[in-house]
Structures are given as structure tokens and as C-alpha cells.
Amino acid sequence: MWRKLDPGQQALLILGYLRKGEPFADAGAGFAVSATTCWRYVNDTVELLAQRSAKLREALR
User: Fold this and answer.
1) pLDDT averaged over consecutive 10-residue blocks of the chain (61 residues)?
2) What is the rounded distance in angstroms from the CA atom of residue 13 to the CA atom of residue 49?
């Protein structure tokens, strides 16, 4: 899949968004991507992390 940002830039955008909680348009503006593109990057990453995270029951053991 083609992406406008390389993986490093995507990581910075996502970490910045998650840390500051800015609107997608503001977070994406610093990387010259649209709010929709920013939303897609964040959504894809959060979904991936959720799939890879330990389940609560496993974590408590």
C-alpha cells in the first residue's frame, strides 16, 4: 500500500497526536497531510496495537 509518509514520519505524527490530542487537521498539518490521512494513520496504528496487546486476563496473570 502506498503511503505519503514514511514509517518514521507516520510514527512521529501518531505519537504527537496521541500525546497532545490535537484535532486530526492540526496534527496532519505539520506533516502536510489531510485530516483524513492523519485519521487513517492513527486508526490503523491503534487497531494494530489493540490486536497485538495482551488481553486483560493474561496481563493480570
Assistant:
1) 86 93 93 95 89 75 71
2) 16
Type and span of the H or E element at 28: helix 24-29
pTM, entire model: 0.79
What amino acid is encoded at 61 in this protein?
R
Q: 53: exposed, middle or buried (C-beta count within 10 Å: 0-12, 13-18, 19+)?
A: exposed
As a whole number of angstroms, the distance between CA 22 and CA 51 comes to 24
Residues 39, 35: Cα–Cα separation, whole Å = 6
Residues found in the chain: 61
